[in-house]
Amino acid sequence: MTLTFTVSPDFNTKYLPGWFVVNTLLQRQLGEGIHLETFDDFDALHAAMRADQIDLIYANPFDAARLVRDHGFIAVARPHQRPDEAIIAARADGAIHAVEDLRPGARIASTDNPDVHMMSMIMIEPADLDATNVAIQLRPNYVLVAKSVLTGEADVGFFLAETFDELSATVRNQLRVLVRSQIYVISHAFLIHPRIGDRFEALQRVLLGMVNDPKGRAALDDVGIQAWDPMDQEEVEFMIDLMVALTA
Amino acid sequence: MRDMTLDDLHGDVGVEHTLTYADGFRRRIYAVEREVPFPEGRLIVSRTDPAGIITHANESFVAMSGFSLDELIGEQHYILRHPAMPAVAFKGLWDTINQGQKWHGYVKNLRKDGAYYWVHASVVPNIRNGRIVGFTSVRRKPSRSKVAECTELYKTLM
Lengths: 248, 158
Ligand SMILES: Cc1cc2nc3c(=O)[nH]c(=O)nc-3n(C[C@H](O)[C@H](O)[C@H](O)COP(=O)(O)O)c2cc1C
What we know:
Chain A is an alpha/beta fold. Chain A is 40% helix and 20% strand.
């Protein structure tokens, strides 16, 4: 049986070739056929989740929550020191210096990344803003979020912190960070379907061992991960409880 | 949990109160009229067992409460109870979470040094294999208008 592996479609596309390298390494070390299926958007991934077609996944926190709570997925590992954090930024030369300067009707450029969107929506609450009194402009990626802010189409943008930090210096210098989340415990997770639960130990050993071998380290580098930390079920449940608490 | 002493205030002026908690425990505290602002971008997180005893607190919790982690773990969460908080607010909290539901509200918390901080708090039951094994609370920066509203509302509920 060939297993299906996928990655939540929110990663930087520069890492796509890297995920194929990781997949090849997993196949070789587990001695098992694994097909890497990539989805263009969350709708396609969620359809595959509902159809029960996924065996292994590097999931964003939102997808991880659904897979664990609704489909019984098992946590195997999480990336070392790579939490998902959000940034809200405005134009550096504009009148908005703090979240509290935003007013009802604020125009916000965002992406369909549910984690970044949730964390950012929480961070605009101190200005009495929520989904009912802001105008969200959906953009396909963070470069276009930045562009919307720079052209004045949007008052602020919601960014994945890691991606914001990788924007060109020219773009970053024209933006003012109003707030950067420091939540630390919300991260992506490597999960497996309960029907392949018997592979848990072998898979965790392979993932955690990657950092100790040159090929493994190169593959990690290609997907922007330093190393894998083990993640147990209680850790993933804790992360999910925290996200449930935040989506009031 | 010991009574507060004037030494805890580090020179601030405090108003003495005796709090009686729902379980009958009484404690003397001093409330200082000084607000500590919520740290930007952070969440204050703690977990308790089903009885409300703290089992986990993150760095922001420790920093904002003024207690050390050692002083917090194993204590009742009411160590943070501020005299300006009406008992009925917490009754609502407990009734909701014991039914397995999520609760959220605005809470004024008391620090070890008598100062206070406002939070927008959510509490969720930790359900494992269908059983409530504890609770997680996550606090975020509140809006000033909600804080102003609750300040007035809570006075009417005392
Ligand atoms: C997970 C959790 C977090 C809580 N956090 C707080 C808190 O931050 N501040 C507070 O005053 N009470 C908090 N409480 C409520 C206390 O347990 C307690 O009900 C409250 O301080 C009032 O004390 P009393 O119910 O004994 O009168 C929390 C309860 C739970 C279950």
